[in-house]
Amino acid sequence: MSSPNPAIACRLEAARAVVHDAACLAMSMRPPPGGPAGKQKAAQDWLTETDGAVEAFIAERMKALFPDDGFQGEEGGVARAGQLRWVVDPIDGTSNYARGRSRWCVSLGLLDGDDPIAGVIEAPALGEVYTALRGHGAFLNGKRIQASPVTDPASAMIEMGWSNRVPKPVFMEKIDAIMDLGAMPRSGGSGALALADVACGRLDGYIEIVINLWDVAAALPLLAEAGARVSPFLRTGGLTGPATILAANPHIADALSKAVSIPLE
Fold first, then answer.
1. Is pLDDT of 228 > 90?
2. Which residue of 26, 53, 54, 90 is most buried, as measured by CB atoms within 10 A?
3. Phi first, then psi: what are they for 181, rounded to 5°?
């Protein structure tokens, strides 16, 4: 294996430190367990004070470290253009975070043009940090990860993300298709962590009909390096707006793709 590009490797290490500090900030602002803290942007679409604070913290730190790099955030949009572009979801799983639950993360991905090349996902309440650099592996807490070896869809665990932007019949059609395969459906409330779960083998697949770049930017290098198969999210509109994603372990990917009518790369 060749040595990583020093400039990109340096950026990944810096991103790990920045995301860790941002995760600590989010933990310090974390609501106690109970009814949701924050406000709704739409039905079941939550926004907390922490989302804005964490995004601003990461934006400021990355600008100071790499002033020529582009930056895009869920809350602030594209703040700077650049060949290298950081894409952040300050709190992925805000509905969980707003209730004091543990399944949420800070997600920061790096794109080179249209190519996702590195990512960091930290879930501080779970004590987990995912990192990936294209061509140099995917890791959970420093240990290399790979997609699940499950070959039988009837033994598979598949998560499907819910969105109020998806008509109920469409959602139920995909859930029915998953269950018709004999797979076990799940829904956990964080797209980035679900994709990371596919990368490390905790899930055999993840589907979301409408999801945004900031939800998946850090996970795409993880999936590629862990050997998962993924739908062409970026080529089907994901760079500029919401699109559909399917990620799966390579052994059940074709069967799942056929069942839910979502093509893979």
1. yes
2. 90
3. -75, -15
Which pTM value belongs to this model? Answer: 0.94
The correct CATH number of 6-144 out of 3.30.70.1350, 3.40.250.10, 3.30.540.10, 2.60.34.30 is 3.30.540.10
| Binding-site annotation: residue ranges | 74, 89, 91-92, 215
Range list for CATH 3.30.540.10 in the chain:
6-144
Residues 90/52, Cβ–Cβ less than 8 Å: yes
Domain(s) labelled CATH 3.40.190.80 in the chain stretch across 153-260
Q: What tokens appear for 54 in the block?
A: 């964490």
Concatenate the DSSP letters of all residues of 156-204 into one string: -EEEE---TTS-HHHHHHHHHHHHHTTPEEE--S-HHHHHHHHHHTS-S
Q: Are strands 243-248 and 205-211 parallel, antiparallel or unpaired?
A: antiparallel
Binding positions for Mg(2+) are 74, 89, 91-92, 215
CATH topology of domain 153-260: D-Maltodextrin-Binding Protein; domain 2 (3.40.190)
Q: Give the tokens for residue 185.
A: 């459906």
